[in-house]
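[step 3/7] fold_predict: job queued, chain A
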Amino acid sequence: MTISKTIAVVHNPIPENACEDERDVLDQGEEIAETLTGLAYQTHIMTFISDPTALKQALTQMNPACIFNLVEAVEGDSQLQFFAPALYDHMRIPYTGATTESLFLTTHKVLAKRLMALTGIPTAGWLALGETPRIPLDFPAPYIIKPICEEAS
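[step 4/7] structure written:
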């Protein structure tokens, strides 16, 4: 049996009117493909599409040895980025980057804070929008308001 020398470089769809920060993944994909080609790998840069049947068919036909995963969002939602490695896991294709579980647990800030608190890791107080406080809110202003799953510190 011959081991495939093909690596799929997969990124999320980038709209034509995307800002420079979003378009950066296209440059990353090209750089990665160029480097892998220099190491005698055949590369295919492809867009992660949210139709699992079509994506599975494309990956099955390509038969990559692994996937270089650059997917940061699915259908424009970064909270869904764990879908990409979940599909790769389902297909039993090795991939780079964080696992399905780690992306699911860490891309939702409130869930991550709850898990840290449950395991005794100190974390600043928080309250999620629409959530009824279960404890007295005794932390003083100023407050930092963040989206639950978007990048920001």
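[step 5/7] annotate
The beta strands are 6-11, 42-47, 66-70.
The mean pLDDT is 88.
exit 0
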